[in-house]
Each structure stands twice: as C-alpha cells, then as structure tokens.
Amino acid sequence: MKNIKTSASILSADMINLENVIKQLEECNIDMLHFDVMDGVFVKNITFGIPILKAIRKKTNLFLDVHLMIIDPIKYIKQFAEAGADLITFHLESNSDPIETLKCIHSYGIQSGIVIKPNTPYEEVLPYLPYSDVVLVMTVEPGFGGQSFMENMMEKVNALSSYIEKNNLKTKIEVDGGINDKTSSIAVSAGAEILVAGSYLFNHKDKSAAVEALKSIS
Ligand code: DX5
Ligand code: ZN
C-alpha cells in the first residue's frame, strides 16, 4: 500500500490571511504546501515568488513543494532553494536543460521534480526519471486553479507507474489540477502518490475532513 501525501495549493487561499491559512493547514494533517509560481510568459497568469516563499518559510516547518511555471527555471533555482523550498519542480516544456536543472536543484540538498503538461507524451520524461525525486503529471492546463480534472491523463500516470516499478526507480508521481474527494481515488488507483489540491481544500470549511477524504480511497 502506497503512502499517499497531500499538498495544499495556496493559489486558492485567502492571501491577506496567509499566516492563518498556514496555521489551519498545519492543524489538518496536510503533508505539504504547494506553491505555484507563474511568470506570465510560460503560462497566462502571474502569481507570487521568492519574497513570499521566504516569508512562509519563516512561519512554518511544513514541507514546501514549489511548482515553477516559468520560462527559464534554472536561473532562479538558487533563490528558491535559499528561500526555503524542500522540493522544486519545473516544466519539461520550459527553456532550461532538464539534467542541468535537476542537478542544480540537488546541489542545494533538496528534492527535485519534473512536470509535464497535458499535451506532452509521458515518453519524453522517461530519460530524466533516474534524476528526479518526483514526476508531476498536470491534470489540467497549467495557469489557473478551479479547472476540471482531465481523466485521460491517467493513461500517462499508469504508464509512468509501470515504468518506475519495472526499472526499480524511486521517483514518486504527483498529480496537480482538479483533485477532489472523487478524482483523488482515480489518481491513486492509477499510481499517483502526491495529490495537489487547491480549490477543493479551500472551499471546504472542515479542512481536516477534506484531507481525510482525499486520502481515503474508495
Ligand atoms: C495550476 C496549478 C495548480 C492549481 C490547482 O496551474 O499548478 O496547483 O492551484 O488548483 P485546483 O486544485 O483548484 O485545480
Ligand atoms: Zn501546481
């Protein structure tokens, strides 16, 4: 039985009350905090960056899962690592060399991961799995929270899961986009181990119950 982890995407959180939001997350058994960085170039949206991550790091010991949706991630790895990231994931479709970027992330003693967008075939990421702690399969088009889960991405999750097992790799599969109490089961059955949830979690008053629902596989 896999150890399912949940990562709360604060993209949908009340930004002005971030300190309280983080306190609530700490109390509800969440495993990670998912931090979506968008540059308005790689995706059609702009969010937050290094100063906010640094401020969050000062307030919590939660594992910080940083998802870079930026055009040239390698340029900013040092700053995100020094700001307190525990895991940095970046897109295969970005302009940075994947191996160089993965090595650069590891040089700061933190975990690394590579992300693929819905239109990218899973085969393209296979050469990088031995260097990645995490492979993140987007289950929506990156850019915005609150979109619907793309169930057809589960073919990729299944294929990656078999490949990882067959090759005795340690890479964990993360899914991001449209995760709720129903789609979480679908993703876990396909082989996902880290579930990112944004709007589902923040639309729920009882966050502990929401986290439990994400982890309980029907
Ligand atoms: C989308 C982001 C996601 C997003 C998930 O580009 O990478 O992390 O916040 O939000 P929900 O869970 O609402 O789909
Ligand atoms: Zn994300």
Model description:
The protein is of the alpha/beta class and 218 residues long. It has one domain (14-215): Aldolase class I (TIM Barrel), CATH 3.20.20. Helices cover 32% and strands 20% of the residues. The chain has an eight-stranded parallel β-barrel, surrounded by five helices. α2 (50-59) runs parallel beside α3 (77-83). The model has no long low-confidence stretch (mean pLDDT 97). The site of D-xylitol-5-phosphate has 21 residues, from β2, β8 and α7.
How much β-strand is present in the residues?
A: 15-25%
Overall CATH class: Alpha Beta
First-to-last CA distance? 14 Å
Look up the CATH topology: TIM Barrel
CATH superfamily: Aldolase class I
Helicity level, as a percent range? Answer: 25-40%
Ligands bound here? D-xylitol-5-phosphate, zinc ion
Q: How many individual helices? A: 8
Shape, per Cα inertia axes: globular
CATH architecture label: Alpha-Beta Barrel
Q: Would you tell me the overall average pLDDT?
A: 97
- How is the main sheet built? 8 strands, parallel, barrel
What's the count of strands? 8
List SSEs in N-to-C order: EHEHEHEHEEHEHEHH
In which order are the strands of the major sheet placed?
A: 1-2-3-4-5-6-7-8
Radius of gyration computed on alpha carbons: 16 Å
Count of domain modules: 1
Q: Low-confidence spans: pLDDT under 50, at least 5 residues?
A: none
Structural class category: alpha/beta
